[in-house]
Amino acid sequence: MIKITIDGREFEAPAGSTVLEAAMENGVPIPNLCYHPMVESYGACRLCLVEVERGGRRRVVVSCLYPVEEGLSVLTDTPEVVQTRKIIAELLLARCPENAAVRETAASLGVTATRFTRQDDQCILCGLCVRACEEIVGVGAITLSQRGTEREMTTPFRTRSSACIGCATCVTICPTNCIKLEEIEPASSVHQHAHPDDRTACRLCGEYEMEPIFYELSEPPREEGEAI
Ligand code: FES
After folding, report:
1. How would you classify residue 31: left for phi > 0, otherwise alpha for psi between -120 and 50, otherwise beta?
2. Rounded to whole angstroms, how far apart are CA atoms 201 and 208?
3. Which of 36, 39, 41 should be mutated for ligand 1, with most atoms under 8 A from CB?
4. Phi and psi for 154 in degrees, rounded to 5?
5. DSSP class of residue 118?
6. Which fold has domain 2-108?
7. Ligand 1 pocket residue status of 62, Cβ below 6 Å
8. How far is the CA of 195 from the centre of ligand 1 (A)?
9. Which of 26, 176, 192, 227 is deepest in the core (most CB within 10 A)?
10. Per-residue pLDDT at 193
11. pTM of the full predicted structure?
């Protein structure tokens, strides 16, 4: 076990765990949207920032990626951390101003309005759905594509995916509830991004989908061959 202090209190954490995991395990609240214990951390939402101190030197780090180290001192609510989190919350609120989870998280940090240009999205591009599809389900039916303002969650090549098994893991794990599960008529496919034939069985249970399940992603799929 590794000994660390969080906000002046001593804790022990398993070697290999992260600062966020150590804090959560010991009931120390650190805001986060894109952490999930079942998948590799990616550090996308940046809300879990903390300050760490070693050798008299302090720096702000992403706690879901920062591993615990013997003697590490972690500070979760310094003025710099609080201020930086508020700016990040404003940016998320600008991207998803009507999303309940984003609004709630921002409000918990004292942010109810944003100075940045408002968009009309529901997805914070944390990639949790993508990681879950790859790491838990093992099929990789969806991905994050493009860069910068064009970045989006979609299927590889934006074509119908033959890999999707209709398990709804992406729907369940999405922290902003932006992937909807609903029936889409006519019922010819399990997923509006899925291909009706040649689906891959689940790596865990070996089954294909039990019942026809239909997802609707935040953006409609493009037709095959349509310009990107
Ligand atoms: S939880 Fe660490 S960056 Fe989102």
Report:
1. beta
2. 5
3. 41
4. -155, -170
5. P
6. Ubiquitin-like (UB roll) (3.10.20)
7. yes
8. 33
9. 176
10. 53
11. 0.79
- Reading the block at residue 126, the tokens are 């944390």
Residue bearing the CA closest to ligand 1, atom 3 = 43
Question: In the chain, at which residue ranges do the beta strands (DSSP E only) sit?
Answer: 2-6, 9-13, 49-54, 57-62, 72-75, 143-145, 152-154, 180-181, 215-216
Domain boundaries, the chain: 2-108, 127-228
Question: Which atom belonging to ligand 1 lies closest to the Cα atom of 49?
Answer: 2
Query: Residue 159 has what pLDDT?
Result: 73
CB 117 within 8 A of CB 94: yes
The predicted pLDDT at position 203 comes to 59
The list of the chain residues with pLDDT below 70 reads 160, 182-228
Is 66 touching ligand 1 by the criterion CB < 6 Å? no
Facing residues of 12 across strands? 3
